[in-house]
Amino acid sequence: MLRSHKIALRPTDRQRRWFAMQCGYSDVAYNFALSAWNAGVPKSQLRKTFNARKYQEFEWCEELDQRAAMYRIMNLEDAITRYNKGQNNRPKRKKRRSRQSYQMESAKIQIDAKRVKLPKIGWVQMHEAVRFKGQVVNRVTISRTAHRWFISVTVETEDTQQVVDPTAPVIGIDVGINTLATLDDGRKFDNPRPLKRYERKLAREQRKLSRMQYPSNNSYKQKLKVEKIHYRIRCIREDAHHQATTAILKRASKAGIETLKVTNMLKNRKIAKALSDSALGGFLAMLKSKADAIGIEIVEAPQFFASSKTCSNCGHKKEDLTLADRTYHCDSCGYTEDRDVNAALNLRGIAVGGTEM
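^ thats the sequence. predicted structure below, dont judge the formating
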């Protein structure tokens, strides 16, 4: 089994400059190869063409790790192949504002506890050790997010899939904007809504950035401030998702969830911002990924199953239920329950093998 672990680094100022140079070099190689392909050079000759001319046109690259350029051109070759098959759009040039990252040869990487030895730069401190034990394989990538540098290490591990506890209950999980997740037993996990919390601060810093002349040193500094706020928002959101999904799956043998078409839901301008802030699609994807790793089955309800409008007691469907109604009251049997708990109970019924009501 291939598992990846993304770890924050503790680089020195010299190492940060080195990482930035490597990312820039990989982008230069990508743009050079793309221009050559647009000029008629065959895809199979792109790496050979770049290697023949790189030291004449880019003298400064001699001291850098040449694998960064090779892997980036290989990525371009893959993009060209997918473009020829009609799977994606035509490759475009990398801009200075593009995401900074580069890949290196995994065979030359040494990992010792909380540090990693990289080609030509030496040992770099990490915030934590690699979580998965095994041989480093396939891919090692350095990337930057806001002010922090990360290393993503792929390791080959044994399939240590856990045995599901048969005594654990089957659960239903209803997701929403106000409450991130509600279980059929009434447990709820709060949604931190980090974008709403930092919205005013983010708008203020973005206004400052829009008034600055680009490119300039001040604009780069201000851009980094905006990136830090976005990074903070992302970390808060992902932390809430990780804690909720782990707590849910610890006490479950099987789970029922709803099928969300997030792109369709975002067309409703009244809830689009709150929906994006909640990142429900990412939450469900994380839940399914963790469940698959430990062997818990996830059952998705049919796309148009009205879990909130259906009575979990008698199966009656209440057509006039609105988003403002937070308590579900069945007009047929008189059953009353919290709206989200009622939906979770219906999803639990789907998971245990019940039919759509």
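The two ends are 39 Å apart (CA to CA).
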